[in-house]
């Protein structure tokens, strides 16, 4: 439109785009897969069961580092000054959630590489025998390391939510539920990712650990659904601007993304599949792959929905 | 902070002529495709035949409690000693967090510097020389009053002490330093 006051283009409320949505997804995937794998390891250890060579843990050792690195690459390329990104590593404004995220990631990223190196110790030593000494030291502190990675994984999962909720004028984003929602969905995409990679590359037989990952899927899906309900019910009671934002799930493209992607693919399909599917199917490769892909797409849709619909409604 | 620069926009006097917008552009070399101030003509409001328009100045509000400053990871967005919310181009990485966090949507990426840009009350040019911001100087109806609100004898102080005024989106707690005198026909609406 031609206004006498000039172009309105720069006033588009959607500032962060799909690149950020994919980054948030990748960070959630990485953190979630580490949380699930380490959780599973502890569960097994507490029962005195062996944890070496579990397909799901191997899968996490691949997903953890790869997903976070791809996500970081996207994030840096999306900066308007990508070649000056090092400033973010030198200056920290501690009132900024992003600065806290940088600190967490700065420790988290090397540690997931150590985790992966310990899981694939044989292969690493085959190609890089000089790392033997370092790996030995890491192995000795493995338990502490895992606790640290677990804590940082929680931090990374939650921070991606706080990153958006700090933007005070967007009612869908500026809620305390968002970090919880992001953490819950990070856990579900993490376990789905682990199952997918494990079935595709690491599992030789029907593996019982897949069963255990499934077991955490229910509470996680329940929490995710609860957070979504809380988010929108909360909006309904938070004044006119927030109430107007509930239109995000009733009208427009993002409403379809929400119902088909987030609710359908992300919640309904996986829950129905694991409750109604005949026993014989449940461990077949095709079934596991389909269901985990559905969850992954659902979480990807959730990140896009939150980023776009969240920014489209401003109070 | 000894100074507290504020701006008052009198919506009764404003005629929406955009002289401020044009003056700002030439004073601050704002590229063609972007803007630091707009005066949007909104409406009509009221019942026919008593219709009126609202002149809404859109520019950085110099928030006292600025969300853009709070979220900036590197501290590139900062508050200067005079209270003017400023940008350190060297520290900025261009993450757009401040652009997204500004509730007034007045930050934009300058296509030439690749760094966020916005109104800074002409602090490096006109203010440094002891002059008023370009928009204030050029306004044909004197709808804009600028000055140090900590100075009890300043004109801006007098206006704020005597005329009813409002700020936009006060519920967000940003404490804007741009005050508006509501149109007599329009009433106060933030
Ligand atoms: S109006 Fe926006 S850019 Fe200006 S100080 Fe407030 S938050 Fe920052
Ligand atoms: S774009 Fe620059 S000024 Fe804005 S928050 Fe990011 S680093 Fe800070």
From TrEMBL, chain A:
Residues annotated as transmembrane: 20-43, 55-77, 97-120, 148-170, 176-202, 222-242, 254-274, 286-306
Keywords per UniProt: Cell membrane, Membrane, Transmembrane, Transmembrane helix
The keyword Transcription belongs to this UniProt entry's keyword annotation: no
Places the protein is found: Cell membrane
Pfam families with a match to the protein in the record: NrfD
Principal place of residence: membrane
Keyword Membrane assigned: yes
Topology within the bilayer: Multi-pass membrane protein
GO cellular component labels: plasma membrane
PANTHER family (alphabetical): PROTEIN NRFD
Family note: Belongs to the NrfD family.
Name of the protein: Polysulphide reductase NrfD
The organism of origin for this protein: Shewanella halifaxensis (strain HAW-EB4)
Automatic annotation (TrEMBL), chain B:
Record InterPro entries: 4Fe4S_Fe-S-bd (IPR017896), 4Fe4S_Fe_S_CS (IPR017900), ET_IronSulfur_Cluster-Binding (IPR050954)
Highest taxon of the lineage: Bacteria
SUPFAM superfamilies, per the entry: 4Fe-4S ferredoxins
Domain 4Fe-4S ferredoxin-type residue range list: 5-34, 51-82, 83-112
GO molecular function: 4 iron, 4 sulfur cluster binding; metal ion binding
CDD domains noted in UniProt: PsrB
Gene3D superfamilies: 3.30.70.20
Listed Pfam families: Fer4_11
Keyword vocabulary terms for this entry: 4Fe-4S, Iron, Iron-sulfur, Metal-binding, Repeat
The name this protein goes by in its record: 4Fe-4S ferredoxin iron-sulfur binding domain protein
Species assigned in the record: Shewanella halifaxensis (strain HAW-EB4)
